[in-house]
Design a protein that fits this description.
Length: about 220
Amino acid sequence: MKISKRLQVIGDLVSDNSFILDIGCDHALLDIYVVQKNKNVHAVASDINEGPLKKAKENINKYNLKDKIKIKQADGLESYEENIDTIILSGLGGVTIVDILKNKKELLPKIKKIIISSNNNYYYLRKNITNLNFKIESEKIVYEKGKYYPIIVFIPGKEKYNNFQLKYGPKLLKEKNQVFKNYLDYNRKKLIKIYKSLNNKYFLKKIKIKREIKMINKI
């Protein structure tokens, strides 16, 4: 089965013997990939919309995986069931992801791993999820169809990060692979453009942007 590079990277972060809840599962391609690839993995493929779930059901039946992947129409963690230990949130905005987790935070102590691929708001995402008693175990970054996708794995624990790490990712900053360097360069150019567009009444914002550009240049 062919899936996108981003979904493949997400799927490869799932451990054997996991019970995953894929929130916003779309057509359940990720769930099918994970269940086929890993040992003893079960999944709940959840989406709030009926349309994607109809297609998900067709795909699951096609690969004869009804015994391993359950479909649920629900909003966020309303689709949680006992024994789920891994949550995947992919293709959603950072604010939406944080809201989903905060709305049912009483369930989070049962979770061993949260895998996130957000469309935006990475600083907000890292800051808020680490405040829910999770730390960043690993990070990957994928460039696909003209867009960069940071993928973050959270596990239970406490760890402090500075603002620059929260924005760009402590593990990505440590590894510094080529895709991440390209991502930093992309952000640096955006910041320079913003800096040049601001007049002097925004001097505090300009100081902040200049400081961030300097930090990127040091990497």
